[in-house]
Amino acid sequence: MTVDPALVEMMDAVFAEYRDAHPPAKTVERDTELWRRLDELGLVRLTGAEESGGSGAGWFEAAELLAAAARNAVRTPLAEHDLLACWLLEANGMGGDDAVRTVCLLGEDGTAEGVPWAAASDRVVVVWRDGDGHRVADIDAAALSITAGSNAIGEPRDSVEADVAALDSVPVTSDLVAELWHKAALVRAIQVCAALDRIVLSSVEHAASRIQFGRPLSRFQAVQHLIADSAAEAALARAATEGALTTAVTNGWSTGNLAFRVAAARSCVGHATSVVVRNAHQVHGAISTTLEHRLHEFTRAALAWRSEFGSVRYWDERVTDATLAAGADVWSLIVD
C-alpha cells in the first residue's frame, strides 16, 4: 500500500485543522462547509472516474483518506458516498451528479436499519433482492420513509422503508452486490484500524507522561504488558485488513479467496477492538471516562464501527464456514 506521502500529509492536515476548530458533538451532522472544502480538494469523489468528475485515484488512496478522518475523529460520509453509493452507480452504468449519496441494502420486507447518513444525504442508492437477482435505484432521500437514528458516537444510522414496487429501478448483478458488501466491510475495517492505532498511541503517550509513585506509568511491568498486548492486536488487525485490501485491489475484487480474506480481516478487527479498548481505559484510568479526554472519541468509534456491515460473530462464522468448505485445501484461502 504505497501512497504519495505528500497526499497523506495533506489529508491529515485538513482533518486535523477541522477537528481543532470543531469539538465533538453528541449528535453528528454532515458539515456542508467541510464537504465543500473536501470537494474543492478532489477528495469527495476521490476514486471516481476522471471523465465523470472524479479524481481517478484508487482504493489505497481512499484507505488513507478514511484513516486520516478516523484518526482525527472527523465524521463525514466520504466512504458511503464515494466508495459505495457512487461506485455502484458508476459500475452499473448509471449516471450520477453532485448530490451527496449513501447506500442502503433493504431486507425482504423493504426496510433497513442502521443505514449510514440516510437522512443527511440528498439521495440514497437502494439495493434489494428481486427473485434470484437484485435491483438498484437511485432515489431522492425525500421520497423514502426515513427515521433518524444514531450509533454510539452520534453518527447518523437511520431506519429506511421503501415500497420497492414503486421505485424506478434497474437490475444489478449478484457479483456487484457481493462486491458492494465486501467493500462496505473493508471500509469499516480500515476505519477501526485507524482508531485502534490512535488509541495505542494515546496509551503510550499517557504512560510515558503520567507519574505514579514517583515514576512514569511506563516503568510498571503490568502497564507495559497492557500496551504491548494492545499494540500487537492493533498490528494484527491492520495486517489482516491491508492483506485483504491488497488481495482485492490486485485481483479486481474477484479472486476466489477474497470472501475469506475480508472475513478474516473483520474477525481480527473485531476481536482486537475488545483488547485494545479495554487495555487503553485501564492504562488511562479514571480520566479516560471523562468527555474532556479524547480517548472516548476513538474507543467508542471502534466499538461502533466493528459491528456495522456485519457483526463480529457474523464474520467469525464466515471464517469458519470458508475454512470448513476448503477442507484439506485451507492453504488456498491464505496464499494469493
Automatic annotation (TrEMBL):
Domain Acyl-CoA dehydrogenase/oxidase N-terminal: 28-93
Cofactor: FAD
Transmembrane segments: none
Positions of the Acyl-CoA dehydrogenase/oxidase C-terminal domain: 186-307
Classification via InterPro entries: AcylCo_DH-like_C (IPR036250), AcylCo_DH/oxidase_C (IPR009075), AcylCoA_DH/ox_N (IPR013786), AcylCoA_DH/ox_N_sf (IPR037069), AcylCoA_DH/oxidase_NM_dom_sf (IPR009100)
Name of the featured protein: Acyl-CoA dehydrogenase
MF term (GO), any: flavin adenine dinucleotide binding
Keywords: FAD, Flavoprotein, Oxidoreductase
Domain of life: Bacteria
Family the UniProt entry places it in: Belongs to the acyl-CoA dehydrogenase family.
